[in-house]
Amino acid sequence: MEHIFVTVSARLRDRWTRAFPQALAVADTAAIPHASESPSGVVWLDTSSMGGDEVMNSLTEAVAFGWPVVAMTPTPEEAQAFKMLNAGAVGYCHVKAVPEQLREIGIVVQHGGVWMPPDLMQRFIKLSTRIAPPPPVNTRELNELTSRELMVAEQVAHGASNREIATNLEISERTVKAHLSVIFDKMGVRDRVQLALAMNSVPIYTSVN
């Protein structure tokens, strides 16, 4: 799985290479097709030095390439996040996200999921619950969860990060990730965004990303 970072400087930041040692960097989206012959990968769009129109144009071009696109920004904002997700991005994060978080985002989007910062996800969930009438939650799926898995799922529903869940439940982050993997499978969801929507009784649609 290839990781290509689109950044004006065409240089990889240290945290990017620590997350993905084999990552590549290009100066603009036009160079993406020539950067790698890999059949699949993730495009990371660094918007730090881009203006408004340039950001959306670059995003459109990156999405057209066909790989999952993660938009990276120095100042995450709710309106911009929803605008970029609506335009085809499947991930939205801080440009200075730590390597561990970058790897987590990469795994989520590679498997068809959507990733955004927990605080934005929480606001997204609240907005969704106001727009979509909540139907009864699928109790059969919930009954398949163990008590600890249900605790983790409820934490996700409130927008908690893996680290916060680990602290709240007094378990390791690795254990949180293991629980989430099982929960996703039992609940029939692809990522923590869909899980949060399901736990808040919002309909799940495969076109969420």
From TrEMBL:
Could you give a GO molecular-function term held by this entry? DNA binding
Q: Where would I find the HTH luxR-type domain in this sequence?
A: 138-203
Q: Do you know which SMART domains this protein is assigned to? A: HTH_LUXR (SM00421)
**Which CDD domains would you find in this protein's record?**
LuxR_C_like
Q: Name one GO biological process term.
A: regulation of DNA-templated transcription
Give the UniProt keywords, A-Z: DNA-binding, Transcription, Transcription regulation
Name under which the protein is recorded: HTH luxR-type domain-containing protein
